[in-house]
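If your schedule permits, I should be very grateful for your opinion on a structural question. I would ask you to consider whether the tokens describe a fold that such a sequence might reasonably adopt. Thank you for your consideration; the sequence and its tokens are set out here.
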Amino acid sequence: MKLITRDTDYALRALCFIAKKNGKIVAVPELVRELKIPRPFLRKILQSLHKHGVLSAYKGAGGGFKLAKPAKRIFLFDLLAIYQQDWHLNECLFKKMLCPNVRKCALKKKIDKIERFVKKELSLISIASLIG
């Protein structure tokens, strides 16, 4: 299992770039050129971030995107929730079915504890903290 998928990575890179622009509207061609992310993927990512209230979108000449809220209030775990929905370290699946030992499994209890810790740490990482 990947901790961060391609979509989450692209979203994170785009948000960091936009945040560095200090409230200015950033055009999609600039993002494509600077981040070297394929335009179709980037458009999908940006539209999703707009739909979830992370970005504001501006149409027409001079249009583009800017952060809809301060960079210190956008967290990595928010992006995981958008792009990776129910994020888990271990899903306890055995041959595509829920493991029959899930309720009494000692390993599951330990992994769940690690997962809670990781989620807590990821919820502390903001865009602002990544751009310094």
